[in-house]
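Homework-ish question, so no full write-ups if that breaks the rules, but can someone show me the predicted structure for this set?
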Amino acid sequence: MPKRSIRIGMVGYQFMGKAHSHAYRDLNFFFEDLPVTPVLQAIAGRSEEPLRRAAEAYGFSSYETDWRRLVERDDIDVIDIVTPNNAHAEIAIAAAEHGKHVICEKPLAMTVDEAVRMRNAVQAAGVHHLVCHNYRYAPAVQFAKRLIDDGRLGRIYHVRAQYLQDWIMDPDFPLVWRLRKDVTGSGALGDIAAHILDLARFLVGEIGEVAACMETFIKERPLGEMAGGLEAKASGGTGRVDVDDAVAFLARFENGAMGVFEATRFAGGHRNGNQFEINGEKGSLRWNLEDMNWLEVYFHSDEPGLQGFRRINCTEPLHPYAERYWPAGHIIGYEHTFLNLFGAFFKGLVEDQPVKPDFEDGVRNQCVLEAVEKAAASRSWENVEYR
Amino acid sequence: MPKRSIRIGMVGYQFMGKAHSHAYRDLNFFFEDLPVTPVLQAIAGRSEEPLRRAAEAYGFSSYETDWRRLVERDDIDVIDIVTPNNAHAEIAIAAAEHGKHVICEKPLAMTVDEAVRMRNAVQAAGVHHLVCHNYRYAPAVQFAKRLIDDGRLGRIYHVRAQYLQDWIMDPDFPLVWRLRKDVTGSGALGDIAAHILDLARFLVGEIGEVAACMETFIKERPLGEMAGGLEAKASGGTGRVDVDDAVAFLARFENGAMGVFEATRFAGGHRNGNQFEINGEKGSLRWNLEDMNWLEVYFHSDEPGLQGFRRINCTEPLHPYAERYWPAGHIIGYEHTFLNLFGAFFKGLVEDQPVKPDFEDGVRNQCVLEAVEKAAASRSWENVEYR
Amino acid sequence: MPKRSIRIGMVGYQFMGKAHSHAYRDLNFFFEDLPVTPVLQAIAGRSEEPLRRAAEAYGFSSYETDWRRLVERDDIDVIDIVTPNNAHAEIAIAAAEHGKHVICEKPLAMTVDEAVRMRNAVQAAGVHHLVCHNYRYAPAVQFAKRLIDDGRLGRIYHVRAQYLQDWIMDPDFPLVWRLRKDVTGSGALGDIAAHILDLARFLVGEIGEVAACMETFIKERPLGEMAGGLEAKASGGTGRVDVDDAVAFLARFENGAMGVFEATRFAGGHRNGNQFEINGEKGSLRWNLEDMNWLEVYFHSDEPGLQGFRRINCTEPLHPYAERYWPAGHIIGYEHTFLNLFGAFFKGLVEDQPVKPDFEDGVRNQCVLEAVEKAAASRSWENVEYR
Amino acid sequence: MPKRSIRIGMVGYQFMGKAHSHAYRDLNFFFEDLPVTPVLQAIAGRSEEPLRRAAEAYGFSSYETDWRRLVERDDIDVIDIVTPNNAHAEIAIAAAEHGKHVICEKPLAMTVDEAVRMRNAVQAAGVHHLVCHNYRYAPAVQFAKRLIDDGRLGRIYHVRAQYLQDWIMDPDFPLVWRLRKDVTGSGALGDIAAHILDLARFLVGEIGEVAACMETFIKERPLGEMAGGLEAKASGGTGRVDVDDAVAFLARFENGAMGVFEATRFAGGHRNGNQFEINGEKGSLRWNLEDMNWLEVYFHSDEPGLQGFRRINCTEPLHPYAERYWPAGHIIGYEHTFLNLFGAFFKGLVEDQPVKPDFEDGVRNQCVLEAVEKAAASRSWENVEYR
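A: Not a homework solution, just the prediction itself:
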């Protein structure tokens, strides 16, 4: 089957660049039916040498040391933004103005204002847009969504979600860009609370109001930079940490559910503990990214005496996306969330159908994040102002 | 070894009456070294027939249909209050005034005012006093306390605690006394949030301020009453539920730790899920009442590559209280928390040493509960006003 | 309700003496409906001082330094044998001949011959008899039995059971009586393999043939003795270990199921890991003593996509024995298996109905143990010769 | 970095063909440092149409409907055999004779004779050879190996390993080639017991003797064929199942360790439960393929009171192969075991160093499998005759 080539231009090349590139390359193997071939056309960054190495490692045919040239190129269909957060808006808007479809890492922007401008730009340009809340696309999460949408949990009472990490607990861990407000906007809030928030919005619905607190436990750190993944190296001197190490917030969903959220980089023993539990009138669900193939499900309607959480390995042919991979019990991993996400996006692109999560989701996520910050500052519940 | 008899007068006789009575009877078997024999002298209640049956079932020598006669009796050393909450204060104060030591179920009172009057009464009378936050006395929790006090976790960053139950999720479950504000003061808040709060105070320290929300999901229920344990039967008609089904709150501890608390009776699949996790600079701890013999512990100082939560069965001779029971790996259960609690209390009594948790703890717990209610109403963070 | 007194005479007083005594004392509290009161009449042993202390600690009214006097006493109804294994047969037979009902710890005897003589003696005397395979009486195990008997698993294909301990892994752990063939008959085989064998017989049926291996990893140990529970102290010199540290065997059940059994005292990290899994044509079950309140159950008939092991807390009113204790989610422990076992035995006694596991079970268990030893020696499959 | 192309010719194209093809394609992305590029040169099979589709799906440049032409082609460096077992020997020997390196799926052969001829052929030809016991290359298993080799467990006492599946429990599941002796040689034995055997040999050492039993629970099935993965479809009529549904065996390792092994396709609830536990004098390890990123480790030397199995997520940079993928806590899946396996093989190939598991491992594995069959038939322990 001849496939339509979709030429990707990526801006940025660190951890997320690796994850996206891999997904593009691996996509056709598992999504044979997708009438699209992603082509790694060009990658952009500022420093030529690491950029050249990234292009080679990831398999891009060319590179640009100025992202502006990338968005102007005629041979690019999609701009994929995996830069630090402070560059998202300018690139995305320029890309849209040049008629490119836009994929952007989360959080969509530094502020709601930025996010709104981005959304308006892609909508005005009529291009497709995607914000990379990839965890929605874990098969177990997709299956949870199906169960909830089918009414299997009934009215939702509770959402409790935590994103627990521990990679910066060492006070000598340096002040990398992810800890600098001017580059990243916020700390645990935008980096990981944004993920559990997106999962909650996806599964349960919109949030109406929040109360919150934020904390920076280690206020001064050695200067330094990311060395790849979540690793870092020091570079001399110290600086003030101006983003949150941890954030917690209470939420009221518009449908009446209560939410309790917590995101922290100071939960020792949790390398990447993105976990949630949802309780509804008919049952409950729980999930943890570190065991991402499993969904635990409880049904009140189970025979009395035989009620208990079932631990389900979501790798059977009838679980979402599972049939594309391996037989039941042969698990998949982190990277497959991106394959599924991009598989859905490209399908939407060729069919000209909108795919979620899009920039509208990015805006709404940002609105909640901003309400959380506002509530932490005002020491009061704050309504989420959607724009 | 001749033992001193401590004559118990108990007021109330439902689920908690059973748990306390059993512990008194079973105590000497496991606490051979304790120079005290609890004697089940008398039990008080209003309805003679169930009272007589309870006296026989629990092994009390006599009964009184008016608790006032009980507190006046010369042959009673300790008054143990296991009534609904609205009777705690009057009985405790009268008992103290008659020179009786006082054991009281939690929450100590309906209001901070009541709790303060109770504490003042026992202090003025110079009697011993105990509030039954029995979960402190699970061996794994005592062991957690020892680890924290020994500095094994270092500075505490996070406490997250949930008390998840599901026994009233059925909308047809009747409006028993535990759901009536005039009898119980509050719902999940005083009944189960009080427990996780006590564990947090015990393990981490005092709370300075809170933000909260409370919810009643099912607002009208059939009238009815408790039939024993957590069972109930309907008795015709319906009534308004005026207590909370669920409560969640954020907290700041005085030592800077962040707390996230949630208590609900609407978490399907959790019969009695009293669970917490604590993250400190050197490690983490987690525990769940339904697996109460286990403590999970993580240490940052473990050899790199070999770091992970250890699942420890706290039944070895060197674990607190464990040697009194069975060899390692032979687990104990819910009832043993009361044996340990009363063992500690009676030891304090004969040595005339204070034992925790006492009415001061009851007051402080109540102060936090009241701040939570206030914060839920004001929609703002509220300082906890300790009295 | 007036109850019939059943006067207990116990022979032996170590760990099992403590467990039995506690159960007798605690029984009426939870088994109110049982028309029997066990009375701790007398305890027998050889050394007066520890015997006197045991009598006091456990609550026996009197003691005898010769068990023969005990079995002759008119004021004893039941002889309970908790001695090392080499004394079981003589005491049990004498007790039966004096018309006493007999309770005996497991394994019933040192050899099949002994076991058969014991069974014949109690049958000839027409007394009630019980062998203390107490784990049958964990509520989760009783519930497993009910599910299997109700056909919920269908035809049974597989039983795999392990009893994993680690208390003698230290080569300096002394040569206590449990490691001496003349006192105990065998090592892991009779002590713990006997337990998983009994569970398998109870749940699945009789075993027809076995293949086996046995091993003694540490062949020489310091001399010493039990100090209580599973603790020990050295007493100078060394001796040869002539019992097995570990045993493994394959089995064919008469109904065609395959069995794989393993019992060892050299499985580091398992204090008391008595665990089994059973796979049938319609589903599976698994259980572990260290988490004894939980039963994991899998049903093929569950809706596709929602199939997984359910983790069931067997503490609900409809679980066997659970209603006697505490509300759902309030777990019980090791000691309660003895309460349930003795509750069943005394009920049978007053109703003059046989109760399992009895000496016939003890004989059958011993026949399998003997076949295992024979198969380990012959290096061939051996039929189990039931007698 | 210019890379040497290694041109792959694959024979067969079902489930394993997909897994291998994917690994070849994905290899360079994660093994940047590997100076080799696998090139999917040609694929061989008998039926042209499915073969053509497989070539397209997997990305092979050409195909051959006769594998003999494939092994004769000059433009092929490696022959990769993913056919049913009955074709392994002839293809592998022919490939070696044509000077091709050979990769072969497990079990290596139908019989020891075949396996020996295959090993002799590759040795005589001086080509590289690999048998695809891919589970050795799960990072957690490689880490277990490192711990054992470093003496962290000391002398090994016990290995217990199960491979539990449930895909043919339905009696109506058809008689696919994996259930036909003429095509596959044996059932659970060669298909899955071979895997746990290889893990045990890798981690603990060689096996000296075995006792065994084998069973076919469902003896007649509808005729049918594999439809991909572990799915199947019926094609009319029925046939006799002449391979084992389940096998269990006891083993003595040459180093004195006891082994207990079980492999079955009738363990309901286990889709792909390849699991083992190893107990040594200093500690224990356990692992399960369905949670393959985790290794549970117990050390006796841990501080008393703090001893327990640690659950370690083997995704940190210092865990074997983990750094190639994602940051800590971002798990990998089944397919990555093949990437690691092939990465090691190609590294060995370019450095001309032997890499394990090779055909010698295949022979030894087959020798144990044959001893197991012999022992099941003889109903006696049988020595493993290595050839």
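Now go work out the reasoning yourself. Hint: Residues 137-357+364-378 of chain D form a domain with the Dihydrodipicolinate Reductase; domain 2 fold (CATH 3.30.360.10).
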